[in-house]
Amino acid sequence: MTIAVWSVKGGVGVTSVAAMLAIARVERAEPTVLVDLCGDLPALLGGHDLDKTDAAPGITDWCATPELAVTALARIERPVRTDLTIVPRGTGLLSADAAPLLQALGLSQRRVIVDCGVVTERHDFRRQFVAAAPVSLLVVRECFLNLRAAQANLVTPTAVIVVKEPGRHLGRADVEAVTGAPVVAQVAVDPSIARSLDAGLASARLPRSLLRVLGRVPLDVV
């Protein structure tokens, strides 16, 4: 199943959540592919020669090929750890039509988690992808401006992951009322998580409590 992870504002943590969600599924013995539509995942994950991924063939290169073959998509995967690979973005422009990529990813027997980044009317390829994905997880913070942007967005998520910050007056009920979708996980802002991400150690050193929370997200039923 293909899961699109996205946000309506920058700086929310969507790339971090996508990576941590993928790692949590691998910890549950679910082989997973991370697809990068924004270009930030290699730097976040670190190690395993991923520092060279920026120059490697990626999604933009695959979209430019006339055949759009599933086998060609598999050949540009890069290993992160056991049972986890990444498909980099590439250096070119995304195509005008997201349907072939969504169709190709849908044929995978593994879990496919796609970092779609910020999705607005100005991000046509990513907006198409999120709108058509079997599952789309909106990442938000309990912030008035964030929820205001979510309310104005034309794409409705199937579920929401909340990044919780201390001192916010808005809560789960407010998020669900604004987005029209259930909150399936709440991830607290945690200095230990930030340290792991900043050090490029997300694939190897995340709190077990966090992995349990994200591992319980019901990706097959939301």
Q: Topology of this protein?
A:
Blueprint: E1 2-7, H1 14-27, E2 32-36, H2 41-45, H3 59-63, H4 70-75, E3 78-81, E4 84-87, H5 99-106, E5 111-118, H6 124-132, E6 135-141, H7 144-152, E7 159-164, H8 172-179, E8 183-188, H9 191-198, H10 208-215
- The best one-word shape is globular
Overall residue-averaged pLDDT value:
86
Give the domain tally.
Answer: 1
How does CATH name the architecture?
Answer: 3-Layer(aba) Sandwich
Give the distance, in angstroms, between the N- and C-terminal Cα atoms.
12 Å
Report the radius of gyration as a whole number of Å: 16 Å
* Poorly predicted runs of 5 or more residues: none
Helix content: 25-40%
**CATH fold-level label:** Rossmann fold
- What's the number of extended β-strand segments? 8
CATH homologous superfamily designation: P-loop containing nucleotide triphosphate hydrolases
Which CATH class is shown? Alpha Beta
Q: Spell out the helices and strands N to C.
A: EHEHHHEEHEHEHEHEHH
Q: Which percent range describes the beta-strand content? A: 15-25%
Strands of the widest sheet, in order across it, are 3-4-2-5-1-6-7-8
Structural class label = alpha/beta
Count the helices. How many? 10
Biggest sheet record: 8 strands, mixed
